[in-house]
Amino acid sequence: MASNSYPQCWKPESQPPKFCPGCGHLMALRALGNVIDEMKIQNQSILGVDIGCSLLAWDFFDIDTIQTHHGRTTPVMLGLKMAQPKKIMIAYMGDGGAYAIGAQHLINSAIRDDNITVIVINNANYAMTGGQQAPTTMPGQITETTPYGKKTNFLKGPEIVKTINPHAYVARSLATKLDLTEKFIKKALTYQIRNKGFSFLEILSPCPTNWKIPPTEIIKFLAKMQEHFPIGEL
């Protein structure tokens, strides 16, 4: 990808990115950057990033950015929204930060219908710490802590959010489908800008390093993920 194809709101000095080869975070962030450019909201937006792989985005964008404690991105962005209600708050985190240590914050923010946007990257494992089982790890999936395959149930974040707040904008996309991801991000941010309430987007993301698969197998693995995590608006 040529340097002049990067979103304009990305910092040139942050390239090349620090993510593992094939990581879906980069594709998701590209989609977010393209939407920020298209909507011309660079000066109005504030990005909050969690601990985990998402923290590598802390210096990606030429916008106000804050790195939070693990699992606390949602309440931090809510606090900023209360202090600066005209700003656009984007909470960006992984499935661990959203559905494990940060689950209480996500659920209560959705219940309150807080006027912020939460974007969650779901790669079905704890990627930053070596590929352990996460709340989104699928049945039978092999991880560092489930060497014989996961035997317990798994969590569906968008479905939970929509159940506790039918009013919220909720969707799930795929990092490799850039157009669809941009469409859902734009809808989520527009929902916030119009003061309609809580907006939530989960993005299924490849993690070839911890899945321990060759790049040629990524599409097949993502297809399996979509059987458990259906793509679309809820």
Notes on the protein architecture:
It contains eight helices and seven strands; from the N terminus they run αββαβααβαβαβααβ. It is of the alpha/beta class and 234 residues long. It has a single domain, classed as 3-Layer(aba) Sandwich (Rossmann fold). The chain has a seven-stranded mixed beta sheet with strand order 2-1-3-4-6-5-7, with helices on both faces. α6 links the parallel β5 and β6. α1 packs across α6 and α4 runs parallel beside α5. The protein is globular. The N and C termini lie far apart (33 Å).
Structural class: alpha/beta
Percent helix, as a range, is: 25-40%
- Gap between N and C termini: 33 Å
Oligomeric organization of the protein chains: single chain
Low-pLDDT runs of 5+ residues are none
- Can you tell me the CATH architecture? 3-Layer(aba) Sandwich
Side by side, the strands of the main sheet go 2-1-3-4-6-5-7
- Share of residues in strands: 15-25%
- Find the count of extended strands (DSSP E, 2+ residues): 7
For this structure, the CATH topology is: Rossmann fold
What's the rounded overall pLDDT mean? 94
**Helices and strands, in N-to-C order?**
HEEHEHHEHEHEHHE
CATH class: Alpha Beta
Count of distinct structural domains: 1
Largest sheet: 7 strands, mixed
Say which CATH homologous superfamily is assigned.
Thiamin diphosphate (ThDP)-binding fold, Pyr/PP domains
User: What shape does the CA trace take?
Assistant: globular
Our Rg estimate from Cα atoms comes to 16 Å
